[in-house]
Amino acid sequence: MKQPELGQKILELRQLKGVTQEELVEQCNISVRTIQRIEAGETMPRMYTIKTILSALDRDLDDLNQASLFETKVKEAMLFSIDEGKDVSFLFKQLHIGWIAGVLSMILFIFEAIEDTYYIMNKEYLYAKPLTITIGVASILVFSVFMRSFILLGNLFKNDVLKYVSILFIAINAVVCIYALIDLDFEYLPVEAYGIIFLICWGMMSLFFGIALLKLMGLGNLPKATGMLQIVIGAMMLTIFLGIVAGPASIIAQGFSVAVILKAIEVIKKQVNA
Predict the structure, then answer these.
(1) Distant-in-sequence contacts of 247-252, Cβ < 8 A, 24+ apart
(2) How many Cα atoms are found within 13 Å in the side-chain-facing hemisphere of 186?
(3) Residue 126 near residue 119 (C-beta atoms within 8 A)
(4) What is the per-residue burial (b if ≥16 Cβ within 10 Å, else e) of 178-196?
(5) Measured distance between the N- and C-terminal CA atoms of the chain, rounded to whole angstroms
(6) Shortest CA distance to 229 belongs to which of 246, 248, 210?
């Protein structure tokens, strides 16, 4: 573990133990100033000093790395950070999974759009509720896997905006859609109010996603065209009354986003084979 994470973790462990810096230094035989600098992330202590501090806190190196290990696993699962030891075939596999998930997501969106339209018109569901829930859960999962590919593209093409927007898009879509599955009959929130909230959330994220795609370099004009389309659709959703047009159009925009992933695969292959 490196600084400043190391200092933050030592500070956390000391506070959990309920000891002051002065009490800690008495047991470690080091100065208060040294502890302060370590916890502030200003200096990287030697391993002997780290072990001495942990021993005084009744901890060991496993305790020091526990939280960061979990964080690392989450980041690796979401492709937020990539192990440099991974073979290039790993990258291709993840991107292929991503575009396939994007296509499946488009298909599920169509089923959901039909269901939503039917519910608004008839105040009842076209499909049986268990099927509606199954489609909803599957839609959340495949959309998350699809957007996960853009986290990877953000890593590969040095686009931090794309990485953070993609993870935010996954989170907001999951929250909004999970609520709809919980309140299936809209007993707590009128369907009209939910529709407005959904359009605002998706509109904002489409705008941000479009801007992030405009910053995606190295893949020609396709990301820029896709980004502009996403921005237009996002703006339409934010007007609310154009949401009825923006909804179907967003499926088309997702098709363009799938094409961006396929373009990335093509470009990376050329670079590998060059």
Answers:
(1) 247/113, 248/113, 250/109, 250/202, 250/206, 251/106, 251/109, 251/110, 251/113
(2) 15
(3) yes
(4) eebbeeeeeeeeeeeebbe
(5) 36
(6) 210
Where the chain has pLDDT below 50, the residues are 68-70
Tell which residue, 230, 229, 112, 79, has the closest CA to residue 181: 112
Q: How far apart are CA 225 and CA 45, in angstroms?
A: 50
Sign for the CA dihedral angle at 254, 256, 260, 265 comes to positive
**Rounded to an integer, what distance in angstroms lies between the CA atom of residue 42 and that of residue 44?**
7
Q: Are 132 and 113 in contact (CB under 8 A)?
A: no
**Hey, what amino acid is at 204?**
M
Q: Residues 210, 229: contact at Cβ < 8 Å?
A: yes
Encoded tokens for 2: 């490196």
* pLDDT tens by residue, 69-126: 445 555 555 555 555 556 678 888 999 999 999 999 999 999 999 998 899 889 889 9
Cis upstream peptide for 4 (omega within 30°): yes
